C-alpha cells in the first residue's frame, strides 16, 4: 500500500457558501420603498441620532447593561453590496446569504400593518441594491410573522427571482412561535417556491418567551438563551404541530445556534414522544427522524477543548449533509471560515460543510473561479 | 535574525503601540508599566489583528472582596478587536483562558531606542505577574 501525503485543505481549495451575513438596513435606506404613513415614520427615524442595533420604533430592545470600558469595539456594519463583496473576498467567502441587521427585531412590532410594510420595503430594497448586485450575493425573503398572508405573497413574488434562495423567519420576540398553525400560509408558499425557511434570532430583551431576560445580569448568560433556547423552542413547536409532516418538501434551517444542541433536542423529544405520542399526533415517526432532515448552521461554531468532539457531535445527528457554514459577518461573534475549515473533520466533510451542502440546499451552481 | 528599530522610547506610549512589519510578519510593540513587549499581530483565537485592539483593564471579583466587582489590570489588558478576548500585555497570556498566549518577540531598549528582533518568536512568554481576581 502506498501512502500519499495530502496537503490540508485551504480556503482556496473549497467552495465557501456563507449562510448568514448581515446588511446594514437603516430606516432612511428603506424609507423610499415603504408606503405612507410609514415612509414619513422612517424618514423621521432616519434623521434622529442612531445607536448600533438600537433604534426605538425600528430595532427596539431594552438596554440594561452599563457599558464596560472599551467593550463596544465590535459594531461593524456593511453598508453597500460592494463593501460586502470586498469583505467576503477578504474572508474567502464565495457566496453569501443576506440577512438584515435592524430588522432582526421585526417580530416585536404589535402593529401588523407597520411590520408588513417594513417587510415589503426590506425585500424590495434588498432586491434593488443588494441581491446579485455583486457576485455571489443572495437574498432571503423576509417573512413577516404578524401578517402571514402578506408574507406568503412576498415569498411568491421574490421567490421567483433566482437571487432569492431562502425565506428568513424572524425569531427574536416572536409570539406565537413558528409551529403555530397561523403561519401555515408562509410554509405553504415556501414549500411551493422550493425555498428553505431559515430561522434567525438576535439579542433582545422582551416580555415574550424566551426573551424575558431582564433579570439576568449579563449578556453572557442572556446570549445563549436568545439564540439556542429560542431556536429550540421554535423547533419544539414545529415538531409538535407536525410542520415537517404537513410540508414534507419544506427544508428548515436553523442559523446562529451552532450544532451541539441538536442531539439533546432529538433524544429529549424522542423520549417525550415515547411516553406521549398523542402530544404530537401528526408525527408518523419519532421526532429525531424529522430533526435529522433539518439543517444547522455552524456559527457560533463550538470550540471544545478537544476539537474532535465537534465531529463526533455532528455524527450523533447524522449531520454530514445537514451542517452549513455560516460566518455571521460582520457581527461581533462572527466566525472566520478558516476556524471551521481547520476543525478536525475529514476532507469530504469539510467540503460539504463549507459549501457543498449549501449549494445543494439552495439549488445554486458552484461558483466559477475568478 | 533581523533586529528592527521601532522608534524612540517616548514614541511608544501606553495604549498606543507601534506596529512594525518585516517579511510578512506584523508585530505590535507595547509599553506597559514602563516595560516593552512585542507580540505577533495575530490572535491565537481566530487569527484576528489582536494588536490593533484597545489597551484596557478587566472586571474581576474575588472572595477577599466579598465577590464585589472590581476593575483590575487597568492599562495591562489587550482586547482583540474581533471577539474581544483579553490578553495580559505583560505575559502575553489570555486572561482566564485555556493557556492561549500571544506569540512574543524579544524587545530591547538601547540608547533611548526600542528594537524588536523579528525571527523565531520567543518560546516562553515574558515574565509578569498574573493577578486577576
Ligand atoms: S480572533 Fe481574537 S478574539 Fe477571536
Features:
heterodimer, A: 370 residues, alpha/beta, TIM Barrel, eight-stranded parallel beta sheet, B: 133 residues, mainly beta, four-stranded antiparallel beta sheet, 10 strands, globular, disordered C terminus, binds FE2/S2 (inorganic) cluster
Task: Report on the architecture of this protein.
The complex is a heterodimer of chains A (370) and B (133). With 370 residues, chain A is of the alpha/beta class. Chain A has a single domain, classed as Metal-dependent hydrolases (TIM Barrel, Alpha-Beta Barrel), CATH 3.20.20.140. Helix content of chain A is 38%, strand content 10%. Chain A has 13 helices and 8 strands. Chain A has helices at residues 27-30, 38-47, 81-90, 112-129, 148-159, 184-193, 219-240, 243-246, 262-275, 287-291, 308-316, 337-341, 347-362; strands at residues 17-22, 95-99, 137-142, 164-170, 197-200, 252-254, 295-297, 323-324. An 8-stranded parallel beta sheet of chain A has the order 1-2-3-4-5-6-7-8. In chain A, strand 3 (137-142), helix 5 (148-159) and strand 4 form a beta-alpha-beta unit. In chain A, helix 4 (112-129) runs parallel beside helix 5 and helix 5 (148-159) packs parallel to helix 6. The longest helix of chain A has 22 residues, at 219-240. The radius of gyration of chain A is 20 Å and the shape is globular. The mean pLDDT of chain A is 96. Chain B has 133 residues and is an all-beta fold. Chain B has one domain (3-117): Rieske Iron-sulfur Protein, CATH 2.102.10.10. Chain B has strands spanning 3-8, 18-22, 25-32, 35-40, 55-60, 70-79, 86-88, 104-105, 107-110, 113-117. In chain B, the strands form 3 sheets. Chain B has a 4-stranded antiparallel beta sheet with strand order 2-3-4-8, with no helix packed on it. A 3-stranded antiparallel beta sheet of chain B has the order 1-10-9, with no helix packed on it. In chain B, strands 5-6-7 form a 3-stranded antiparallel beta sheet, with no helix packed on it. The radius of gyration of chain B is 15 Å and the shape is globular. Residues 125-133 of chain B have low confidence and may be disordered. The A-B interface holds A 68-71, 73-74, 305, 332-336, 338-339 and B 46-48, 53-54, 56-57, 59, 71, 79, 81-84, 98. Bound molecules: FE2/S2 (inorganic) cluster.
Amino acid at each position: 500500500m502506498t501512502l500519499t501525503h495530502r496537503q490540508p485543505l485551504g480556503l482556496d481549495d473549497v467552495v465557501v457558501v456563507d449562510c448568514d451575513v448581515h446588511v446594514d438596513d437603516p430606516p432612511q435606506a428603506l424609507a423610499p420603498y415603504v408606503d405612507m404613513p410609514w415612509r414619513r415614520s422612517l424618514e423621521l427615524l432616519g434623521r434622529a441620532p442612531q445607536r448600533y442595533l438600537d433604534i426605538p420604533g425600528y430595532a427596539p430592545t431594552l438596554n440594561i447593561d452599563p457599558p464596560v470600558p472599551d467593550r463596544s469595539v465590535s459594531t461593524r456594519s456593511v453598508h453597500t453590496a460592494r463593501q460586502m463583496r470586498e469583505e467576503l473576498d477578504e474572508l474567502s467567502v464565495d457566496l453569501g446569504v443576506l440577512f438584515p441587521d435592524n430588522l432582526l427585531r421585526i417580530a416585536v412590532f404589535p402593529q401588523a400593518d407597520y411590520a408588513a410594510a417594513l417587510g415589503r420595503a426590506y425585500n424590495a430594497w434588498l432586491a434593488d441594491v443588494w441581491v446579485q448586485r455583486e457576485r455571489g450575493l443572495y437574498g432571503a425573503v423576509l417573512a413577516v410573522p404578524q401578517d402571514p398572508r402578506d408574507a406568503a405573497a412576498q415569498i411568491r413574488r421574490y421567490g421567483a427571482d433566482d437571487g432569492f434562495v431562502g425565506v428568513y423567519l424572524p425569531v427574536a420576540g416572536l409570539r406565537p412561535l413558528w409551529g403555530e398553525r397561523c403561519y401555515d400560509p408562509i410554509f405553504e408558499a415556501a414549500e411551493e417556491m422550493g425555498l428553505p425557511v431559515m430561522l434567525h434570532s438576535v439579542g433582545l430583551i422582551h416580555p415574550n418567551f424566551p426573551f424575558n431576560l431582564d433579570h439576568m445580569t449579563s449578556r453572557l448568560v442572556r446570549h445563549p438563551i436568545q439564540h439556542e433556547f429560542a431556536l429550540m423552542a421554535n423547533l419544539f413547536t414545529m415538531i409538535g404541530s407536525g410542520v415537517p409532516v404537513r410540508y414534507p418538501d419544506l427544508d428548515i434551517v436553523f442559523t446562529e445556534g451552532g450544532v451541539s444542541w441538536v442531539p439533546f433536542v432529538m433524544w429529549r423529544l424522542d423520549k417525550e414522544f415515547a411516553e406521549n405520542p398523542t402530544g404530537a399526533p401528526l408525527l408518523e415517526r419519532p421526532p429525531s427522524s424529522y430533526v435529522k432532515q433539518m439543517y444547522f448552521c455552524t456559527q457560533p461554531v463550538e470550540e471544545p477543548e478537544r476539537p474532535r468532539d465537534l465531529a463526533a457531535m455532528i455524527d450523533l445527528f447524522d449531520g454530514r449533509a445537514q451542517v452549513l457554514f455560516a460566518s455571521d459577518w460582520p457581527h461581533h461573534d462572527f466566525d472566520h471560515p478558516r476556524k471551521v475549515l481547520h476543525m478536525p473533520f475529514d476532507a469530504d466533510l469539510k467540503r460539504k460543510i463549507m459549501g457543498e451542502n449549501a449549494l445543494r440546499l439552495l439549488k445554486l451552481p458552484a461558483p466559477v473561479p475568478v | 535574525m533581523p533586529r528592527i528599530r521601532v522608534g524612540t522610547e517616548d514614541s511608544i506610549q501606553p495604549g498606543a503601540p507601534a506596529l512594525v512589519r518585516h517579511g510578512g510578519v506584523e508585530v505590535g510593540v507595547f509599553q506597559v508599566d514602563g516595560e516593552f513587549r512585542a507580540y505577533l499581530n495575530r490572535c491565537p483565537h481566530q487569527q484576528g489583528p489582536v494588536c490593533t485592539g484597545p489597551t484596557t483593564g478587566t472586571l474581576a471579583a474575588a472572595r477577599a472582596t466579598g465577590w464585589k466587582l472590581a476593575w483590575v489590570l487597568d492599562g495591562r489588558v489587550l482586547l482583540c478587536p474581533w471577539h474581544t478576548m483579553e490578553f495580559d500585555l505583560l505575559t502575553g497570556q489570555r486572561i482566564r483562558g485555556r493557556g492561549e498566549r500571544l506569540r512574543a518577540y524579544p524587545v530591547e531598549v538601547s540608547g533611548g531606542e526600542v528594537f524588536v528582533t523579528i525571527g523565531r518568536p520567543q518560546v516562553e512568554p515574558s515574565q509578569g505577574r498574573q493577578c486577576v481576581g
